[in-house]
Amino acid sequence: MSPVAYPVVAGGAHPGWPAKLGPLPTVSGMVAGRPLHRRDFAEWQHARVRDEALIRRWDATSELTWEQRHSRAMWHAHRTLLRVGARRGEVVPFAITVDGAFAGQVTLGGIQRGALRSAWVGYWVDSRYHGKGVGTAAVALLVAHAFGPVGLHRVEATISPQNLASRAVVEHLGFRPEGELLRYLDIDGAWRDHLLFGLTVEELPGGLTQLLQRWRLSGSGSAPPAREPR
Q: Which residues pair with 120 in a beta bridge?
């Protein structure tokens, strides 16, 4: 697979958006990605409020209470910002689904074109699906999409050293550790250090198939067969 400089398309569209990802099989069911829907609010709110203890320590600092941050108005603002960013070519956001049910989010953000052609990947998954390969499947699908239709050269992830579950996702897929960023993000009330992981298109000539092979060889019991979804 070689890097491709995809042009921005007239009419507000851009390479790789709108799109759907997958599906891929996991022990929880078929994992896929799709654009966020207005009707996702109830499941988004329920999962995020229920999982506050698991999510908040990795989330951006805010003066609002957790409940205020997950109101209908905040969902509308969050979804609107992502839709506007997607139209501008700055972000590629997806709802993660398992057998069609909302299960979290995976986002390609901070998209840069020109000589850089890079973006970061971020994700969170409903606790009902933790440890079952859902997050890893979603990130694998998004990375393959980033190096394919979106036309990027590099994808990176910045993760708290203590966030072992999130680190496992990128490690299963062969992201390289590139160092530590000191006091990098304002998270849960303080400036936190983060580990930097990266992957470039030259390291992934086999695309999604190669990502799935890496996942399988990492020893994860949740890895699907090493072949592209139909």
A: 109, 156
Residues with Cβ within 8 Å of 15's Cβ and at least 6 positions away in sequence, in order, are 6, 7, 8, 9, 89, 149, 150, 151
Q: Is residue 116 part of a domain?
A: yes
Domain membership of residue 13 (yes or no) is no
Tens of pLDDT, residue by residue over 78-127, are 999 999 999 999 999 999 999 999 999 999 999 999 999 999 999 999 99
Count the Cβ atoms, other than its own, within 10 Å of residue 36.
Answer: 20
Is residue 5, in this structure, part of any structural domain at all? no
Total domains in the chain come to 1
Report how far residue 141's alpha carbon sits from residue 187's, in angstroms, rounded to the nearest whole number.
27
Question: 45: buried, middle or exposed (CB in 10 Å: 19+, 13-18, 0-12)?
Answer: middle
The boundaries of the domain holding residue 102 are 21-217
CATH code (residue 205): 3.40.630.30
**Has this prediction a pTM greater than 0.90?**
yes
Residues 6+ apart with CB under 8 A from 202: none
CA angle 94, 92, 149 (to 5 degrees): 110
82 in a domain, yes or no?
Answer: yes
Residue with tokens 């993000």: 185
Apex 111 CA angle, 17 and 30, nearest 5: 50
